[in-house]
Known about the structure:
Residues 14-410 form the Amine oxidase domain. InterPro entries: Amino_oxidase (IPR002937), FAD/NAD-bd_sf (IPR036188). This is Phytoene dehydrogenase-like protein. GO terms for molecular function: oxidoreductase activity. The protein is of the alpha+beta class and 417 residues long. The protein has 2 domains: 7-44 and 204-263 and 366-411, 3-Layer(bba) Sandwich (FAD/NAD(P)-binding domain), CATH 3.50.50.60; 51-199 and 267-362, Alpha-Beta Complex (Polyamine Oxidase, Chain A, domain 2). The chain has 13 helices and 21 strands. The strands form 5 sheets. The protein has a 7-stranded mixed β-sheet with strand order 8-7-16-17-18-15-19, sandwiched between helices. Strands 10-2-1-14-21-20 form a 6-stranded mixed β-sheet, covered by helices on one side. Strands 5-9-6 form a 3-stranded antiparallel β-sheet. A hairpin with a 2-residue loop joins strand 11 (225-229) and strand 12. Helix 1 packs parallel to helix 13 (395-411) and helix 7 crosses helix 9 (181-193). The longest helix has 17 residues, at 395-411. The chain is globular, with a radius of gyration of 22 Å.
Amino acid sequence: xxxxxxxxxxxxxxxxxxxxxxxxxxxxxxxxxxxxxxxxxxxxxxxxxxxxxxxxxxxxxxxxxxxxxxxxxxxxxxxxxxxxxxxxxxxxxxxxxxxxxxxxxxxxxxxxxxxxxxxxxxxxxxxxxxxxxxxxxxxxxxxxxxxxxxxxxxxxxxxxxxxxxxxxxxxxxxxxxxxxxxxxxxxxxxxxxxxxxxxxxxxxxxxxxxxxxxxxxxxxxxxxxxxxxxxxxxxxxxxxxxxxxxxxxxxxxxxxxxxxxxxxxxxxxxxxxxxxxxxxxxxxxxxxxxxxxxxxxxxxxxxxxxxxxxxxxxxxxxxxxxxxxxxxxxxxxxxxxxxxxxxxxxxxxxxxxxxxxxxxxxxxxxxxxxxxxxxxxxxxxxxxxxxxxxxxxxxxxxxxxxxxxxxxxxxxxxxxx
Length: 417
């Protein structure tokens, strides 16, 4: 392949940026076409009323192998969550800690009512068991639903309902824990081996760091692709581009006629931000609402994790809803009433900042894999796919797929002139 070949990447999300980085390493100068005005794709942060608002509650798991490969954690200025969670119920608050990381909490954890003592022993055993397995072993291991796995492993309904359901509903963005147990084991291992964190200035710092390392890549913002026909790109503006090779680093079913209707609907989440005078949690931990009568699944004060999420001395609360609800003017008020019932703080004190309805929050992948042969990224001659929809929904998978798409492009037997 000639270094002056016209290589186009559609989408400046994580996978598209990684593909560009890999192509640059080999001397190519790709062009990224991006429909929005910034890099990041689903990893975006907005500035609203003195707050930093991530589009949907997201975290970086520092144990992700691909994140360790591509990101400079020091430059990200990561702020870390305390391991564990706070279980919020009307009239009571329970905490679940990792006694291995916080030995001072070992006794209180042993007697915590979040689950049985047997549950806590099993959680320790599962953690140690998964640490001994490679990611490949996990993704080729037994496959059932997450809920079935937890039950078969011997966890009580008490800790499943109090902790596992609300915690992993917020990660998998589905309410039945029907997600593959392989994905559960992988994520649980990542939490055991590393930490959950956010950059001090929001999640978009991650794609911005990747962008800063691109030296020969041109990014064309606000350029929406209408369709692909072979290696011909048609933009919404009517412009036609003849490419030598293309990496589609966005939803391919929206661009390639042959793939229309072949992708399962993405998982949705509603993310509501409120500001308060101060945090009612006052520590960098996620709060879980296990009661199914509430709309809220989980919440976190982003300013407890990073003070930089606010520049006006008010606390910023992120609330996630995974249940199917109608987004209207009443939703934010209704959730504020729920939070009032949990905290005894007047609902009027929860000042609504912004609500995000994120339809393409997470791909729904059935046949999950830890990696894929580079050649499997190829859809037809000189057109390749990238995105976490090819592996499993996560930042780690997005990076893997971007790297594999670039490798597939280079390894392609087609001669590009």
